Amino acid sequence: MLVSGKELFQAAKQGGYAVGAFNVNNMEIIQAIIEAAEEEKSPVFLQASQGGIKYAGIEYIAALAKAAAEKASVPVALNLDHGTSFSQVAQCIRHGFSAVMIDGSQLPYEENIAITQKVVDVAHPCGVSVEAELGKIGGVEDDISVEAAEATFTDPQEAADFVERTKVDALAIAIGTAHGVYKGEPKLDFERLAKIKEAVDVALVLHGASGVPDEAIRKAVSLGICKINIDTELRQAFTRAVQEVVRTKPEEIDPRKLLGPAREAMKETVRAKIRLFGSAGRA
Ligand code: G3H
Ligand code: ZN
Asked: Which CATH superfamily is domain 5-277 in?
């Protein structure tokens, strides 16, 4: 069933686990995530990034995701990932999204607060949860690119002020992760995470989680991370599976024989993440 992100955030916060949020661009990815969540009896976020919306069109993404969520035996929230404007948020709400992220992290602090407040004002009366971002997460995700030198970690005191003034449901924090493929092993600032957790009472979100070692993910969850975003590792699973078919059966011309194994591979990736995040059996 389709539920508000609020419901998933509250349950995760109380239960001490994190819900996986996986980026979707087409039917096979959506099916892989939903099948994995059902097999693991786990709540899950489907989310559409800027690139996903551009690629598939918001109508297709919303219709596919809503059909999947309504049919699912587990709670599913449909989230806008890294929303860039108020009008995009409004458009997503109109298309039935049950959660939105407004990413004002590139803006000066007061402007980030102002746009986030405006989004909360329209989303909350619609039963739609709001995630914001404070600090700048490095790396590249579709159109959003932050140089390593520009990335800035979230300040715990600023986080407290931000949450109090905006009334967001969830906060994406910068503690050392980055979008895309890591060059070296990412080092997470757990002390900062603990301080942020102490300073605010909202769900904390970890972006750029592909490629972060399992041990670090477990520790982040134990310190209060409630939602974990994964995109790159799904892309890798999809592409490796397609490449394998092309390599072993170069004469294959049926798209389903390429996309089917890709769907299966993504499903296994999602199942492993769900178990790692501690949300298996929580639906
Ligand atoms: O918002 C989406 C994510 O933060 C995904 O990051 O591609 O590094 O897994 P990732
Ligand atoms: Zn992200």
From this structure: Aldolase class I (3.20.20.70)
- E-strand spans in the chain? 19-23, 44-48, 76-83, 99-102, 129-134, 138-141, 144-146, 170-173, 178-179, 203-206, 225-230
Rg over CA atoms, the chain: 18
Query: How many CA atoms lie within 13 Å of 14's alpha carbon, on the beta-carbon side?
Result: 7
Work out which ligand 1 atom sits closest to the CA atom of 179. Answer: 8
Instruction: Give the global pTM.
Output: 0.97
Give percent above pLDDT 70 in the chain. Answer: 100
81 is catalytic: yes
pLDDT tens profile 162-180: 999 999 999 999 999 999 9
If you search the block for the tokens 């932050």, which residue do you land on? 146
Please tell me the distance from the alpha carbon of residue 232 to that of residue 239, in angstroms, as a whole number: 11
Domain spans of the chain, in order of start: 5-277
Ligand 1 centre distance from Cα of residue 177 (Å): 9
